[in-house]
Amino acid sequence: MSKAVSMSMGVVEPQERMKHLSHCGNLIEVDKNMPVTRYYRSGTEMLRMANVYLREGNHENAFILYLRYMTLFIEKIRQHPDYGSVKAEVRDINRKIKDEIMPTTEKLRAKLLTHYQREYEQFLASKEAERVRELERDREREKERQRQKERERAGGAGVVPSLIPANLHVLIDEGNQPSAPDLDLLDQVVYPNDFPTGANRSLPGSGLLLPAANEAAADKTANSKPSFDRNQKPSYNRTDSLLAGSLRLVHVPGDTMEVFLKLALANTSKNIETCGVLAGHLSQNQLYITHIITPQQQGTPDSCNTMHEEQIFDVQDQMQLITLGWIHTHPTQTAFLSSVDLHTHCSYQIMMPEALAIVCAPKYNTTGFFILTPHYGLDYIAQCRQSSFHPHPNDPPLFMEAQHIRMDNQAKIKVIDLRR
After folding, report:
1. What is the pTM of this model?
2. Label partner for 62 (CA 20 to 30 A): which of 78, 128, 218, 420?
3. Domain end residue (candidates: 76, 107, 123)
């Protein structure tokens, strides 16, 4: 339904950032082949997540979702052929948008713009300070080069011999013609009592530095690094932002599969599939599965259809839960997504990109955590008009193992069984 867009790090001006944020909030599409009620439900959960982001102070994400909510119900849902069936509900939503959501969104816009302006000013100030520091480093390097040249000229004028200690004796082999000592070697002769120690290693009256101190100073200058990265831009492209373009982490209680297999045991023994809805909440830009809602359903050995979905919605509204995927059994098969499963999961993933399809295969004691491949499988299945079981191409893959999950062995899953 919506696509994440990563913002270029070259865009730093406040107005441009705001423009891009608004663009991201408008990125929402309506598939005419999806039931219009799904979009109504998706909008409800979108607003629920926007309110969470607002409470947590994540104003960028709140702004994006409020804007998507308004775009969906003011503009895009009217394009759906079944819009008439939810027209009354949408009219009530639009009244809420006018009275509550639009004023909140405009306040967020002003607050974000002020924040972006402050970040941009800090960025420019830091960049200017670094430019000044770099100029100062250039001047120091030039001074050091001049000092080095002076030392070299002083050495050529015969100042170096004054460094030779008076008590140095040179033994001359009588069989060889005496020659002058190698001045380069003499420069390296160091006597502890003759030279000062510590930070000040210059020779009194000579104006010269010892080579060790000279090299250390040069190394320090050469290896010094700017305290500010000149390529740095204002830090708006964060991992906690919907602009990052990555899937949010989904936490799965460690006992989820065990609990679900127990409530599905009666059906499994009859070779009948069982399904449930995974629901939970949003916190700090991460998603937490907390409940399995088991709806009234009709199962076969290779399929399972939910009934009376309005009962699921009522439970979610009462408990402020959002839909995070679904779970079902394959009583006699391995863990994979059949052609029917692919279409079932498509409706979940279009509404919630992080939605999981958990498949439990008790006969093989395996579990699969699947999603449709975001850049191929999701679009392919959304455009497929076949029903029931039918063949799909396997290359490129239509589904994959989910990489955005974390098993939480400390958390316990809760069950709401509507079959009773």
Report:
1. 0.74
2. 78
3. 123
